[in-house]
Every structure is written in structure tokens, then in C-alpha cells.
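for the writeup, i need someone to sanity check this before i put it in the appendix. the sequnce is what the collaborator sent (i think, or maybe the updated version? ugh). structure was predicted straight from it, no edits. if anything looks off just tell me and ill rerun, i have time this weekend
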Amino acid sequence: MTTSKVEDKDPLSAQAPIRKCLHCHITKTPQWRAGPLGPKTLCNACGVRYKSGRLFPEYRPAASPTFVPSLHSNSHKKVLEMRSKTGGLIIRDTLPELIPNTSAIVQMDCM
């Protein structure tokens, strides 16, 4: 009777690919949320902002590897200030632009 030798497999090769937020590129988040490209494509912070219609290219969580203080902020008030200074122009970088979720904005009719 012969016994086969169990080969040691590399644990990293057996793992699933690392998930990355499509907006800020962060890899660690307490919950993955739906974005414009489908479920579980945004980190918790970006997903919450997307759902409320406040996810702009200038927004980045401070922990994001793509956070550059001169281009980004994690404060909505500062993001709006940055956008007003540039005249609403979007600062282009190498990341794809995500469109705010306009379905979350409540339309109010004036009487």
C-alpha cells in the first residue's frame, strides 16, 4: 500500500482576488456596497455617499491610498467648496468618474 504525499499549497494562490473600491481603491472596509457598476463595487464610505447622491470625484476617505490633500477631501462641505472654486469643473485624474445617484435626491415642487 502506498500513500501519496500531500503537497503544501501556497495559501495566497487559493484566496479570491483582493476586492478594491472602484472609487477610492481602498481594500479594507466593514461592508461592500452597491455602486453605479453593480453590487459590492464600492467601500462603505463611498457607497453611502453614492446612495445619497454626494459621491463626487473630489471625495476620498482619508484612509484611501489615492487621497491627495490638494485634490481630495473627506468632508462634503470642503468638496463643495473645492467644486465652487473650480467653477464646477471636475479635476481629472486616472480614476473613473462616478456619477452621483440622482434618484436619491428628492424633488420638491414649489407652490
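Helices lie at 11-14, 44-52, 76-85. The CA atoms of residues 23 and 96 lie 7 Å apart.
thx in advance!!
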